[in-house]
């Protein structure tokens, strides 16, 4: 007697649908991530340009402390190079901040530069 094998092709169709959906989802996630990352970079560049226009008015002397009025004072700490918050002038604080943001934007693990590299 000969053995008869029945192949269930519905599983293959479902698997293909799932794989196609996963591929489309991956592409959609890449597009959304690209939009978010490019918007973040654009926003950073705009803020950097805006800050560039006021640097002549806010110097180490005129803005000796990074503050939001007399009630609030900002101290810088990034948790890596500066672990304990330090008091600094507004220009120095902004320099620390812009450098930190640029480092984040350049970090491939946070903002991959190639499509399909999202982890």
Please give the radius of gyration in angstroms.
26 Å
Name the helicity range.
40-55%
Order of helices and strands: HEEH
Overall spatial form: elongated
Structural class designation:
mainly alpha
CATH architecture, by name, is Up-down Bundle
Are there runs of 5+ residues with pLDDT below 50, and where?
A: 5-13
CATH third-level topology: Butyryl-CoA Dehydrogenase, subunit A, domain 3
How is the largest sheet built, in terms of strand order?
Answer: 1-2
Largest sheet: 2 strands, antiparallel
CATH classification class: Mainly Alpha
- Put simply, the count of helices is 2
Number of strands: 2
Our estimate of the beta-strand percent is under 5%
Work out the oligomeric state of the chains in this entry: single chain
- The averaged pLDDT comes out at 78
How many discrete structural domains? 1
Q: What is the CATH superfamily label?
A: MOB kinase activator
Distance between the termini: 53 Å
Can you tell me about this structure?
- It is built from two helices and two strands; from the N terminus they run αββα.
- The protein is mainly alpha-helical and 119 residues long.
- It has helices spanning 9-54, 90-106, and strands at residues 75-76, 86-87.
- It has a two-stranded antiparallel sheet with strand order 1-2.
- Residues 5-13 have low confidence and may be disordered.
- It has one domain (9-106): Up-down Bundle (Butyryl-CoA Dehydrogenase, subunit A, domain 3), CATH 1.20.140.
- The protein is elongated and about 50 Å long.
């Amino acid at each position: 007697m000969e053995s008869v094998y029945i192949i269930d092709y519905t599983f293959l169709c479902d698997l293909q649908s799932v794989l196609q959906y996963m591929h489309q989802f991956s592409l959609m996630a890449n597009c959304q991530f690209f939009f978010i990352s490019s918007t973040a970079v654009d926003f950073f560049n705009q803020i950097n340009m805006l800050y560039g226009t006021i640097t002549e008015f806010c110097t180490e002397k005129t803005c000796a402390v990074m503050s939001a009025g007399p009630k609030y004072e900002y101290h810088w700490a990034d948790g890596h190079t500066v672990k304990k918050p330090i008091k600094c002038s507004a220009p120095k604080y902004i320099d620390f901040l812009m450098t930190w943001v640029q480092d984040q934007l350049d970090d491939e693990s946070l903002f991959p530069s190639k499509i399909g590299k999202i982890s």
